[in-house]
């Protein structure tokens, strides 16, 4: 919800205008985010379990490569680059890399079938 509010602010859109455009109440909007968060958490658990069972992980080299790509994309945003050093941000990036590898592994298995 905070990300949405920041995004709206950056685009000079009031929260009330957004809700009107979306034809939702604040409660409906929040409920939608809750549903999405639950689905993402479930998918994260499934992906993590699958990655663990199949020894799929991202290496430090892959993390560094991804960090360098992000730094290049945000080279004019010092705050974004600083946040990349936070352990929780790097863990999130590692999870994303691992999830991508799981999806690639599954796609490859499906193509072979």
Protein described:
Keywords: Coiled coil, Isomerase, Rotamase. Residues 1-106 form the Trigger factor C-terminal domain. The chain has 113 residues and is mostly helical. The protein is 81% helix and 0% strand. The chain has helices at residues 2-10, 15-22, 26-53, 60-73, 78-83, 87-112. α3 crosses α6 (87-112). The longest helix has 28 residues, at 26-53. The N and C termini lie far apart (41 Å). The model has no long low-confidence stretch (mean pLDDT 91).
Main beta sheet strand tally, sense and closure: none
**Helical run tally:** 6
Helix content: over 70%
* Shape designation: extended
Order of helices and strands: HHHHHH
* Rg calculated over all Cα atoms: 18 Å
| End-to-end C-alpha gap | 41 Å
**Category from helices, strands and their pairing:** mainly alpha
Share in β-strands: under 5%
Low-pLDDT residue spans = none
E-strand count: 0
Q: What's the domain count?
A: 2
Quick check: average pLDDT?
91
Coiled coil: 56-83
Keywords: Coiled coil, Isomerase, Rotamase
Domain Trigger factor C-terminal: 1-106
Pfam families: Trigger_C
Secondary structure: elements and pairs:
Blueprint: H1 2-10, H2 15-22, H3 26-53, H4 60-73, H5 78-83, H6 87-112
Helix pairs in contact: 3-6, 4-6
Summarize the structure.
This protein is 81% helix and 0% strand. It is mainly α and 113 residues long.
What distinguishing features does this structure have?
Trigger_fac_C_sf; mainly alpha; Trigger_fact/SurA_dom_sf; 113 residues
